[in-house]
Amino acid sequence: MTEVVSIASRVSAHETLRGSAGRGHIRIDGVSIVFGSGRAAHQAVTSTTLDIRPGEFVCILGPSGCGKSTLLNSIAGYVRPSTGEISVDGEAVSGPGPDRGMVFQQYSLFPWKTIRENIAFGPKVGGRSATECGSIANTFLEMVGLTKFANAYPAELSGGMQQRVGIARALANYPSVLLMDEPFGALDAQTRLMMQESLLNIWSEFGTTVVFVTHDVDEAIFLADRILIMSASPGSVIADLKVPLARPRSLEVETSEAFMELKRSCHEKIRAESLRAFQQQAQ
Amino acid sequence: MQKALRETVAYTASPPSAGPAQAAHPPVDAPPKSDGSQAARSVQAAVTHALAALRGNAYGLAVGTLGLFIGIVLWHLATTHSVDFYVNFANVPPPVQVLDALIRHLQDLRFYVHIQVSVQRIATGFLLATLLGVLLGTLMGRSRLGRALFYPYIEVLRPIPAVAWIPLAILMWPTDEASIVYITFLGALFPIVINTMHGVEQAPEVLVRAAKSLGASRMQIFWHVIFPSALPSITTGLAVGMGVSWFSLLAGEIISGQYGIGYFTWNAYSLINYPDIIVGMLVTGALGTISTYLVRLGARPLLKWQRKAR
């Protein structure tokens, strides 16, 4: 992945990339989220309190339906907590906003806009001039190595390329927080590994806070500073693990002893939790 | 119980860890390298592709022409032999007579006035229908109140044929011209409203969310997300609406006047000039086809992204 490794030397607006460093302090304070009401009420997230430091890379790991996406969506501002409060850099989250960039699982690029227009969308609706939008788009096209595809439409790109555009589009607003909802879940295993390395390189440039939702243990350990394991019914964080692997990381790290150790520990916790849920349902 | 099992499976379904060799591979989704030989090959491929497309088109054109020719021959035989087998061809003019009448009219300036008047009426009615139809359709697709308010009108009025509107149109509008435009307008309106509504409704939620998180306002979301995503559907509505508009034209032009291709057709019937009836019908059909094609052609630059998707 030499193409992405050398971004630092290639991105001309290098200084501005670091603009988001030091920001992105997320506080989740006693948040619970209930969908529906009365007998149909479903508790998606149970009183959760978390503190995510600026610049931290956090993975939320859990099975489908455990409420991890709901928690992410509440940080994004799509879902309003039933109780408690979420704040970013001291400001309460009341709805979606450009300070929190979002990367979705797939098919979230505007199909009628070219790659350049997709990336420039945030700055454009934010009221920046056409020249500024153009130079921001160029910076980020270069960052994700898709300059050649600037005028292509999303449908002409592979899944991996589309997700790189998705990341570039979210970062073009210089958000303090990057929220990623299983962004590589729909990619094939090969492409996914490449994307993980690529993301780490981009993140090291940016220093922005990342909250990354996944159900893949390897992915979580490879990427994160810290892993939050969530369990289903009711959705809550059951473990908060530090990842003691040095950075920069390359794929070889996945065969290291520390990696294996953490993986074993994650699986153990998840297994215990699954068994508990299993017994609960059998009753 | 099944749920718990599935959850356990989800955890174990992670890809196996990669060895050092894996990292050396080039990215799977990297842009293709373009050297000289590859460029030449891609040009060759494009030429082959274009030739194949041309051959496909020529084939379609040949079959279409042959089909039309067979139809005309059958029409000719049926009329010259005065076939009367349930359907009576005794009074139907043969194609040669129709062609003769058509050539005669094409040399007559008044015939072009008929066409011009009709085209103007269609253009006015269609334009008004487009404006109101897209507006109403958008309101109905985006707002629950809008839908509750307008949907009953659309559903009740939609099945009423253009001819049934004639008496009321005459009573309601100050001039005959306005009545005729009103009837062509109605014809185009319903397909445009319905298709716009469906198009607007189907704007993918994930794109709306993406736009919100990028900081777009409600109006910006409408212009950059909802409207473009509804455009293919709106275009279909416009194309169908244009067809129905021509379809309603004759009903409108029965009302009155001295001009219009519908009036021309209806007048030919009153004058028992059978070849002219068919000339009027064929010209209506041709103009309808051409204008529908123009609508699609006009929308094409806006839908460029869709053709690339394949």
Features:
heterodimer; A: 283 residues; alpha/beta; Rossmann fold; four-stranded antiparallel beta sheet; globular; B: 310 residues; mainly alpha; MetI-like fold; two-stranded antiparallel sheet; 2 strands; 78% helix; 1% strand; flat; disordered N terminus; transport (chain B); MetI-like (chain B)
Compact summary:
The complex is a heterodimer of chains A (283) and B (310). By secondary structure, chain A is of the alpha/beta class. Chain A has helices at residues 2-5, 7-10, 14-17, 68-76, 115-125, 130-143, 159-171, 189-206, 217-223, 257-282, and strands at 26-35, 42-52, 57-61, 83-88, 91-92, 100-103, 177-181, 209-214, 226-231, 236-242.
The CA-CA distance between the termini of chain A, in Å, is 51 Å
Helix amount of chain B: over 70%
Along the chain, the helix and strand elements of chain A come as HHHEEEHEEEHHHEHEHEEH
CATH superfamily of the largest domain in chain B: MetI-like
Segments of chain B where pLDDT lies below 50 for 5+ residues? 1-35
Distance between the termini of chain B: 43 Å
Across the major sheet of chain A, the strand order is 6-7-8-3-9-10
Q: Judging from the principal axes of the Cα atoms, what is the shape of chain B?
A: flat
CATH class of the largest domain in chain B: Mainly Alpha
The fourth-level CATH homologous superfamily of chain A is: P-loop containing nucleotide triphosphate hydrolases
Instruction: Specify the structural class of chain B.
Output: mainly alpha
Mean pLDDT of chain A: 88
The number of strands of chain A is: 10
Count of structural domains of chain B:
2
Question: In sequence order, what are the helices and strands of chain B, one letter per element?
Answer: HHHEEHHHHHHHHHH
Radius of gyration of chain A: 19 Å
Per CATH, the architecture of the largest domain in chain B is Orthogonal Bundle
Per CATH, the class of chain A reads Alpha Beta
Family (chain B): Belongs to the binding-protein-dependent transport system permease family.
GO biological process, one term (chain B): alkanesulfonate transmembrane transport
Transmembrane segments (chain B): 58-78, 122-141, 153-173, 179-200, 221-247, 277-299
Main location (chain B): membrane
